[in-house]
């Protein structure tokens, strides 16, 4: 059986909670120090990611930036998260030599975690929907990880926990620990990096930062940092179709749920995740999937870079915010993220055949972006659909 077709957990060695591990053992402590050193050294080797400008008419007095997280060693925003999760798990004594790390992930987090697992020499198993893009599967396996598929994305959590119990491994559980594993007060997190890179720009404190949510950890880190540093920046979280975050945020329902998974890989969830911190953010937008894909294709036309669908979700919302600022005569800057590269999705978001199969018509949204960039006026037919603000 191939590693990507695992149907049953590995041979049980007993639940992790019953394994007797002496954490004062000299060999374990030496392994732990070396593992932490390797993970921290990865950060030292990686230069900060670039902050790119999206071209807007100069007369508007507004600058739109994209923080290009696709330049991390594993090619996505999730590299930061995976590094933090591994340090958190190691320093808590949860990750042990020779025992697998298991993660529930639709792709990019698993790619990055497979990289760090290989770096410190432990096995890695990704529990993911069967619909995950082939390129992400290839990258997980490239870094030595195994792929364990589920047909229902809502079953990822319990399947991951079961695999950890059966193998004596550690279920990383990004959806619970993402918001607490990262030091949101600074320490070169993504928020601190954005402000450092903007310090010589004409609008060094952005009016808005737009961050999509998968775990919710990035939006929590950015929002907390903004409040901690007493900036006037507001934080917007766009949400794709088939995700419950928008409903849960607008209604205050912590039990909000969706019956199916998001088509925009890496963001949107069928349940309100523990790492999503609704009270920290200022605004949410519900973004049609066709709009996300239209925006990511517009990005390629504007700066010559392909990016994943979640980047399009954020860019669509950022452009709407820019349109509101233009309409109100305000100047300033807006920041959103390039979450991962588009070459992982050539058979999806850049495939007209896939769009037709999904029943997605991006033409009206593409036309709206072109009209706005040419006139400075957001088309009335798409005026603020599915948006909510605090």
Describe the protein:
The protein is α/β, with parallel strands linked by helices and 390 residues long. It has a domain at 45-74 and 189-375: Rossmann fold (3-Layer(aba) Sandwich). Helices cover 41% and strands 13% of the residues. The strands form two sheets. A seven-stranded mixed beta sheet has the order 1-2-10-7-8-9-11, with helices on both faces. The protein has a four-stranded parallel beta sheet with strand order 5-4-3-6, sandwiched between helices. Helix 3 (108-120) packs parallel to helix 4 (134-142) and helix 10 packs across helix 13 (363-375). It is globular, with a radius of gyration of 21 Å. Residues 1-19 and 384-390 have low confidence and may be disordered.
Short description:
This protein has a domain at 45-74 and 189-375: Rossmann fold (3-Layer(aba) Sandwich), CATH 3.40.50.1100.
């Amino acid at each position: 059986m191939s590693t990507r077709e695992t149907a049953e957990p590995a041979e049980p060695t007993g639940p992790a909670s019953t394994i007797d591990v002496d954490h004062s053992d000299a060999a374990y402590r030496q392994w732990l120090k070396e593992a932490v050193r390797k993970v921290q050294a990865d950060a030292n080797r990686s230069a900060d990611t670039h902050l790119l400008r999206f071209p807007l008419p100069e007369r508007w007095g507004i600058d739109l930036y994209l923080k290009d997280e696709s330049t991390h060693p594993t090619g996505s925003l999730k590299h930061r998260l995976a590094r933090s999760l591994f340090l958190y798990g190691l320093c808590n004594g949860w990750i042990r030599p020779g025992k697998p790390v298991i993660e529930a992930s639709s792709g990019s987090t698993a790619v990055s975690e497979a990289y760090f697992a290989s770096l410190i020499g432990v096995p890695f198993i990704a529990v993911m929907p069967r619909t995950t893009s082939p390129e992400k599967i290839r990258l997980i396996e490239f870094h030595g990880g195994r792929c364990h598929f589920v047909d229902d994305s809502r079953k990822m959590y319990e399947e991951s926990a079961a695999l950890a119990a059966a193998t004596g491994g550690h279920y990383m559980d990004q959806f619970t620990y993402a918001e607490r594993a990262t030091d949101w007060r600074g320490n070169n997190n993504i928020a601190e990096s954005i402000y450092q890179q903007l310090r010589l720009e004409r609008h060094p404190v952005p009016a808005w930062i737009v961050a999509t949510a998968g775990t919710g950890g990035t939006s929590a880190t950015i929002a907390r940092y903004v409040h901690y540093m007493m900036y006037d920046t507001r934080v917007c979280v766009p949400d794709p179709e088939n995700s419950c975050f928008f409903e849960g945020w607008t209604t205050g329902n912590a039990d909000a749920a969706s019956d199916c998974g998001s088509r925009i890989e890496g963001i949107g969830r069928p349940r309100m995740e523990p790492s999503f911190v609704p009270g920290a953010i200022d605004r949410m937008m519900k973004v049609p999937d066709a709009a996300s894909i239209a925006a990511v294709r517009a990005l390629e036309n504007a700066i010559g870079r392909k990016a994943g669908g979640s980047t399009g979700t954020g860019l669509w919302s950022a452009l709407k915010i820019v349109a509101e600022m233009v309409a109100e005569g305000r100047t300033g800057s807006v920041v959103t993220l390039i979450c991962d590269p588009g070459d992982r999705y050539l058979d999806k978001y850049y495939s007209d055949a896939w769009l037709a199969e999904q029943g997605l018509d991006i033409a009206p949204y593409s036309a709206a972006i072109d009209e706005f960039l040419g006139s400075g006026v957001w088309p009335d037919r798409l005026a603020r659909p599915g948006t909510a603000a605090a």
